[in-house]
Amino acid sequence: MDQWSGYKKPEIIADLDKLDSAPVECDGFVRLAAKVLFRHGQDFEVFKGSVHSRSGGYIPLHWWIESGGYIIDYRARLWMGDDAQHGLLDKETVGDLYTGSPVHFPLISDSLEVMLLLDF
Fold first, then answer.
1. Which superkingdom (predicted)?
2. N or C: less crowded end of the chain, CB within 10 Å?
3. Residue 111 pLDDT exceeds 50
């Protein structure tokens, strides 16, 4: 079920999509995405666990965000290729691919956010 405020959804997706080119892996992406969701006042939980793709890929240690009936994962393709799920995903559709537990993940500072977005 879509629990995001309808008027904010396109804006949040646009802000998350901007992070896709950040030179970070899943843990760094989760930190950046959490900051975006926090700024939009959107509730979320960070998860650590494993993930599969429908094409047979597998990542034994992975980080993602769950929020309002969605899984936010922009880094599965980094390890499993272009056939893997990517972006803002309907949890009812892909939730069976993710196995993990919520973890405490403190928000990063504004200065660390800037550093994670730098392309060296």
1. Bacteria
2. C
3. yes
